[in-house]
Amino acid sequence: QVQFAESGGGLVQAGGSLRLACAVSDSQFTFYNMGWYRQAPGKKRELVAQITSDDIPVYGDFVRGRATISRDNDKKMVYLQIDRVNAEDAAVYYCNRPESPVPWGPGTQVTVSS
């Protein structure tokens, strides 16, 4: 059973940076593209960034230029860093497979202070 454990959220000051980590329990991890998603209160979950199994990143328009997604296949980890954080980045962040999603993990809450 595939499972995700997101971490690294918390209170971030506007203009600062956040770095999130996702531990993936999946023996097939290296074969899948992975994505970071977020869901703010009252809004639909949206894809923030994804990284292919070949390490090619793709970013949503709202974070392009200030986000970095990476993966460590040996450790089965996916990371997301967002710089120049703003109020719109406040959300619960999740990881999952974009093309073949499995049940969601608990996510990690990011709160942005002004």
What is the topology?
Elements: E1 3-7, E2 10-13, E3 18-25, E4 34-39, E5 46-51, E6 57-59, E7 67-72, E8 77-82, E9 91-96, E10 108-113
Parallel strand pairs: 2-10
Antiparallel strand pairs: 1-3, 3-8, 4-5, 4-9, 5-6, 7-8, 9-10
Give the overall form. Answer: globular
H-E string: EEEEEEEEEE
How far apart are the termini?
40 Å
Uncertain runs with pLDDT below 50, 5 residues or more?
A: none
Computed Rg: 13 Å
Number of β-strand runs: 10
Outline the biggest β-sheet. 6 strands, mixed
Treating each run of at least 4 consecutive H or I residues as one helix, how many helices? 0
Q: Summary?
A:
The protein is mainly beta and 114 residues long. It has strands at residues 3-7, 10-13, 18-25, 34-39, 46-51, 57-59, 67-72, 77-82, 91-96, 108-113.
Describe the structure.
- The chain is an all-beta fold and 114 residues long.
- Helix content is 0%, strand content 49%.
- The protein starts with a strand and ends with a strand.
- The relative contact order is 0.33.
Features:
114 residues, mainly beta, 6-stranded mixed beta sheet, globular
